[in-house]
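To the wet lab folks,

You asked to see what we're planning to order before we commit. Fair enough. Below is the target structure as tokens, and below that is the sequence we designed to fit it. If anything looks off to you, flag it before the synthesis order goes out.
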């Protein structure tokens, strides 16, 4: 996920202090991996340097002044460009699971065991995500569904590969 542009997009909804921006990010996107405060403030510095945000106020506190940031027209344009540019589906041909399967075959180790272990891990993750959805807010349910659909695709690949292991073993032996 593009944390930088997501933070910029959150500022598009209204000016904010770094602390409040982090809280908003964590609410919507940081369910499993909240942003570190240092990352938020370094990103704000970079966004300011790029001309995408500007300081719109500051207030004195116990420590350094609290700076309030707002998005600029250039920043809003950047968010629009990001938002309406379709993501390229991940079509990586260098997945670790594929590599492990090939290496197992090359070494004469049980590639089926590699696939079985990964299938079990995927199934455990699916159970966790399904539990997490129960009674959760809609944004959590949708994030879990996104992850579940990706896991289901991996499981389909695992099953297909398992059904073709003899053929793949022969191809690797050539």
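Sequence we intend to order:
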């Amino acid at each position: 996920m593009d944390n930088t542009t997501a933070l910029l997009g959150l500022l598009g909804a209204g000016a904010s202090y770094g602390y409040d921006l982090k809280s908003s990010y964590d609410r919507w996107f940081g369910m499993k991996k909240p942003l570190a405060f240092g990352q938020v403030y370094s990103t704000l510095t970079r966004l300011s340097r790029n001309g995408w945000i500007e300081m719109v106020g500051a207030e004195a506190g116990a420590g350094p002044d609290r700076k309030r940031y707002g998005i600029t027209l250039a920043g809003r344009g950047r968010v629009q460009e990001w938002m309406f540019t379709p993501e390229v589906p991940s079509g990586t041909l260098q997945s670790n699971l594929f590599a492990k399967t090939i290496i197992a075959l090359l070494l004469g180790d049980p590639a089926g065991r590699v696939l079985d272990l990964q299938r079990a891990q995927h199934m455990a993750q699916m159970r966790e995500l399904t539990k997490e959805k129960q009674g959760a807010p809609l944004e959590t349910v949708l994030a879990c569904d996104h992850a579940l659909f990706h896991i289901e695709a991996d499981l389909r690949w695992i099953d297909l590969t398992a059904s073709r292991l003899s053929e793949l073993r022969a191809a690797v032996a050539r």
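Structural context that might help your review: Residues 138-163 form the longest helix (26 residues). The radius of gyration is 22 Å.

Thanks,
Computational group
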